[in-house]
Design goal:
The chain has 246 residues and is α/β, with parallel strands linked by helices. The chain has ten helices and six strands, in the order ααβαβαββαβαβαααα.
Length: 246
């Protein structure tokens, strides 16, 4: 308003990173992912937006988790798809069987024998978080050079999923402090602590339920893009009309 913009043209959207239209997962979508990735009856650990330096750590943790949780399925989403080749190569040194989600689209793929699924398409992670039982948010243990504050913790929390992060979290740190008050082990400093926190979540369904309830009751999300979309729709109509009359 102070800059001269008319007040009726200003819309407060909240945090666009937690737009429910982008993150919500329908029952049909859930069924699709369950079927494609073989998640039914599995304990699902998701590591999202993993940095290049975190990839090997996550695979080592997955292998260790696999030794204590027989029905484990790990989903890893590297921040950059170029890292998938390196993740596959490192996985060959472990006892883990690894496939990309695209690999699993093949009807002949034996999904039950795959321990680790690599998400190899951008734009899916926000919804896929809704399938997890325990989540690690990448870029927080070994930060990105261009993004030292870690990735977005709000996307998994939108689904009320229990998260674990490294110490490199500055964005939304007030949320982390609130969660840490409920569960101190949310912040981990190394691979050993990461294994301990994730395994404790996966092995204790009752605690996961309490964590879920705490998130649902305590973390409030502020995102309403309806006004913005209405404004953009009107702008689009004007642009189209102008283009058609030129």
């Amino acid at each position: 308003v102070g800059l001269g913009v008319e007040e009726n043209k200003i819309f407060v959207t909240g945090d666009l990173k937690i737009d429910p239209h982008r993150l919500s997962i329908s029952e049909d979508e859930r069924g699709y992912y369950d079927r494609i990735m073989g998640l039914t009856g599995k304990s699902v650990f998701i590591a999202g937006s993993v940095s290049q330096d975190e990839g090997e750590i996550i695979l080592d943790v997955c292998e260790k988790l696999r030794s204590v949780i027989s029905n484990l399925k790990c989903i890893i989403a590297p921040r950059f798809l170029d890292n998938i080749k390196d993740l596959k190569k490192y996985a060959e040194k472990t006892s883990l069987s690894v496939a990309t989600k695209t690999d699993l689209l093949d009807e002949k793929a034996d999904k039950d024998k795959i321990d680790v699924i690599l998400l190899d398409a951008y734009g899916e992670l926000g919804k896929v978080y809704g399938l997890g039982d325990a989540i690690f948010v990448g870029g927080t243990l070994k930060p990105f050079a261009d993004k030292p504050l870690g990735q977005n913790i709000l996307e998994p929390l939108f689904h009320c999923k229990p998260i674990v992060v490294g110490p490199n979290v500055k964005n939304d740190f007030d949320v982390i402090k609130k969660l840490q008050g409920f569960w101190p082990n949310i912040i981990v400093k190394d691979s050993s602590a990461l294994f301990n926190s994730i395994s404790s979540l996966l092995l204790d369904e009752g605690f996961r339920g309490n964590y879920f309830k705490f998130i649902k009751d305590s973390i409030k999300f502020d995102c309403d893009i309806s006004g913005l979309m209405k404004a953009l729709s009107g702008l689009r109509d004007k642009v189209v009309a102008t283009k058609m009359t030129c």
